[in-house]
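SEVERITY: medium
COMPONENT: batch folding queue
REPORTER: lab tech (J.R.)

DESCRIPTION
The queue accepted two submissions in a row. Attaching both inputs and their returned structure tokens so the on-call engineer can compare them side by side.

ATTACHMENT 1
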Amino acid sequence: MVPTPWLVNIKVALVVAVLGALILVASEADHTADLPILVAITLWVSHLIIFLSMFTAIRLALWRARLRRDLTLLLSILLTPCLFVPVSLVLDAGLGKPDAEFYAELSFAAICLGSIVGGGRILR
């Protein structure tokens, strides 16, 4: 049986995600340094798989909208990190350790953005 191209792409994405997770765990990233090894690997693999999936989905959606190839690549590179942040925070809260400093900075940024978007009113 000849594998279909999307099946090959899924296998490559899985291999890249596992290798990337092993490299990140081996480098003892501060965020996962004190987690058990299997939890840290699971956290990084899930981050990388979801990120690659979101990037591919955004790129395909833009391609189906009949945008130019270089524009779809540029927009997917710009949009994926912005859309991935909430997913990453949920994964960190569920599997990893929530970063208190990041949440403090995020809440400050949310207050600033809310005051700009809300016409000068600060969100409560």
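ATTACHMENT 2
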Amino acid sequence: MPGISSASTQLTAISQPQAFPTAQDSAKDSVIKRRLKSAALTSDQLQPRCEPGPDHLAGVNTLITGFKSVFALAGGGFYQTEFAAAENHLKLLPAFNTASAISTDPSKPALKEEETKILMRQIGKILDEIKAAASDGLKIRLLRDLISLVVSASMVAVIVNGLSEDDPASGFQTANGPLRSPVGDWALIGVEGLKTPLTLGLSYGTLKRQHMADEMEKRLTIYVNAVKEYLQDPALIKNTSAWNSVFYFGLQCVEKLRDFSTIFTVLNTVIPAGRLTLFAAEALGAKDAASSYRGFLRLLGNISDSTRAISSAMGVAARTAIIGQGMDNIKSNAEMLFEKYKDCGPEHPHVLGLKRINLAFSFCTTPLLAQIMAPDGWTADFVREDNLTSREALEAFLTERKITFNVADDGLLTNKAAENAFGQQFQNGKFENTVNLSIRAPYRLWLIVQELLGRPWESFGTWLQRTENVPPVMLQSVNVIEMNTRT
């Protein structure tokens, strides 16, 4: 089925080399290396080795429960609607989160060995699906930006050609009718007008997938690094080449083009309003000056949109590559962690520390977790705190360490006041209007418009999937624009 597909491959070998590390991995591994070097301890000296016993699956079960917490609490905040919409595309995640076998309810039976292996494979497949979600979002973005670039660059070429054949004294008036033909000029206006709903409809498909994949990658990376920091096992540290680090740094630099493209997105929003205002001024009699300014804005708007399309496509492509490599690193690390926790009993120090990490991921949002588990942060203190067995104890730990946190409406702990989908902040036990609302609310309405305009693409993609004997080339094309909701 086109779209976000579940991978059928098994988990890759534990010894698979990593192409390049995430920034969090590099920072965390360097901390572990320094601590191991200064202590001159081996892995066996740091923690007793796990041995098979009656409850030898306790360690793996605890690790699976931790991954469940990571998946279940990802998302929320202003983009909770987009996150939920994208999450619906993942076939395995809903079943994984609701599986009674991995419930934290002590009355439920423990996992059997075969069930444990199935869920371990599911985790690997979920990671593959999240990576595929980011790739699908990139395909939709590339299609959107290609439409924008072709139309806008063509308009710039037509306008510049018209201006070059006109008297410079007339200013930019020719830009309003560069073909000097009523039919041709109205056709150009029609193409410009059609471009807007097409590209807006495709925007939402990228946004929801990228936000979901980005959040998942960050949260999973924090979790894996926190467990690695606790174990301080040299076998968990990857040696990476300088070239790979430089390449990753280059991707991070290119990713900043996403922020650069936002400038032109704002400009593209303002320019049409200016053109309409000048058109009204022409109707009131200020024809020459207003017409020239309106032509200039038309040229400027198409140059701006061309620049936005190029920078946006490059930035999203870089971010997708970072997410993809991050998920590969997480998958490889997860395999090693499962191997590490194999045969660990419920009272083993490895398992007790992991339970404390799971506690934080059961109650904290991703930004707050990033503070708690930061390199050279509180991870070591946190996992060795014997009293960390409840949310109240977790709050006391954060207060004692002067880590600022807030309690959201659903009881989760956040690094700042929680937001709802319209930008209201949860304060004094209720959602209140703040300064952020003046920015967030209009943007939410804009996202609603994008979602509505994207429904035709969604319906078209669903229709193609349900139609038999569709030419393969059409099915391949719908992979790019497919936005169907998967249950």
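NOTES FROM REPORTER
The mean pLDDT is 78.
No errors were logged for either attachment.
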